[in-house]
Amino acid sequence: MATGGVVLADANNFFASCEAVFHPELAGKPLVVLSNNDGCVVARSNEAKRLGIVNGTPWFMIRETAERDHVIARSSNYELYGSLSRRMMSILSTFLPDQEMYSIDECFMRSPWDTERTRQVCVDMRRAVLQGIGIPVSVGVAPTKTLAKITNHWAKRHETSHGVTLWHDLAQPDGGTGVLSSIPVEDIWGIGRRMARHLRGIGIRQAAQLRDSDPVAMRRRFSVQLERTILELRGFACIYDADGIGENIRNSALLCSRMFGEPVNSEETIAQAASVYAQYACRRLQRQHSLCTMVSAFCSSGNARSDIPSAAHGSVTLPDPSDDPVIIAAAARSALHGKIIPSVRYARAGVLLTGLVDADSFRTLPTLGADTDPGLGAALEQVSRRFGPMRVGIGCAAGIRGKGRASEEAGARWTMKRNMLSQRCTTRWDEMPTVRAS
DNA sequence: TCTGGGGTCCTAGGACCC
DNA sequence: TCTGGGGTCCTAGGACCC
Fold first, then answer.
1. Which terminal CB of chain A, N or C, has fewer other CB atoms within 10 Å?
2. How far is CA A110 from the centre of its chain?
3. Rounded CA separation A42/A165 (Å)
4. CA-derived radius of gyration, chain A
5. pLDDT tens digits, A69-79
6. Which nucleotide is nearest to A195 (CA to C1')?
7. To 10 degrees, what angle do helices A224-233 and A145-157 make?
8. Which nucleotide in the DNA or RNA is closest to residue A198, CA to C1'?
9. Residues 6+ apart with CB under 8 A from A60
């Protein structure tokens, strides 16, 4: 291999590691992070993994056992994770070019260097993140993204790798057949439960067998994605970033939806929620410099065990593309108007913005624009930027914070439960950690 | 009497990922 | 009582156009 190829940096147990950054006493303890509404486990420390706790398990099902085992639980603190993620990405990007943020805790990069220099850069980069923000990261290097996922996984599992693994090393001396023979197909990036079952049905159990199957025949039989995975396993890169790199990524639809903390059945309350979710979605819309042309809102009853599911949804097309929270929140409310059945207990709601266009290519002349105060949306955005999200909002009390942490979301009973929330140390003045020297 | 074929756009649904 | 919340890509089918 002449050059380093694809580099994948992925934080270890990211949410759990973030929780430990400002609470060093959590290090070495079994820790789980729960999804919104404290629903199910979405992240675990190594110690919690060792206790056999599985990701996705509903918390109420394992709570008793876990507490007996002294497992510590935290509600998800996305402000903290988002803030640490930005810092981590920023450090990583100083070491290698073409960063593509793939998720909150991982990014692809490209190494222009030869094998040994790539190895050294990855070791340095890993150390810099650990020193800079206290998050352990694993690094995998390979000719393709799919193989980089495998080397990254390897780096996480094998202490001898010290957090950095190159395909160059694993592929010796048999071109990787030995390693790929030890990996079950369902562990390959892009192969989900469904596809794994199909593959096992035709006798393909390990990554090596998939790599050696006929890509054209597999494409005909299954899908073009599977063909790409096979080629990637052979070392031919064919999965690219759709939109170039880094901050150029723009979503083509924006969704904000939540479970309610408790069931809701009044139209007014659901309209409040829709209004708040629309404002959250607007902030994301503005951040990526887009306007939307269609606003959809929906709500549905029931949870996983609900007997009769019931849903309401509606869409509103805007007269002009907009990122104005006043217009979009009103559209979200009106999309559901008259569609709420009072006897139904709704469990969740959401707002979806579609038909997104580039804001710069859609500057409406002032006199042709919508008939609202053009300053209001911008003013709201400025207040949010300075004082934090949802300090000021539109229309009604829903979702507006009270003073201080305890009552901050007290304005609405339907907001989600986060009973075990840690401090948002890096984004809130009033939650900054205190350090004492003795 | 003859009744095409290629292209685009949109939508819904499936599968997958973190 | 209690089971995230975002996204992506691909495919098929329908409407419409020339």
1. C
2. 22
3. 26
4. 24
5. 999 999 999 88
6. B15
7. 60
8. B15
9. none
Q: What DSSP designation does A351 have?
A: E
What is the number of other CB atoms lying within 10 angstroms of the CB of residue A362?
14
Is A192 exposed, middle or buried, given 0-12, 13-18 or 19+ CB atoms closer than 10 A?
Answer: exposed
CB A17 within 8 A of CB A58: no
State, as a whole number of angstroms, the distance between the CA of A421 and the C1' of C10.
Answer: 39
Q: Which nucleotides along chain C are within 7 A of a protein C-beta?
A: 1-11
Q: What is the pTM of this model?
A: 0.82
A40 nearest nucleotide via C1' and CA: C3
Q: How far apart are CA A266 and CA A178, in angstroms?
A: 61
**Which residues of the protein are close to the nucleic strand C, CB under 7 angstroms?**
A 35-37, 39-40, 42, 56, 58, 60, 223-225, 242, 251-259, 277, 284, 303-305, 347-348, 350, 416
Average pLDDT over residues A176-198: 95
- Whether the CB-CB separation of A359 and A293 falls below 8 Å is answered with no
How many Cα neighbours within 13 Å face the side chain of A283?
18
pLDDT confidence band for A378 (50 / 70 / 90): low
Angstrom distance (rounded) from CA A327 to CA A306: 34
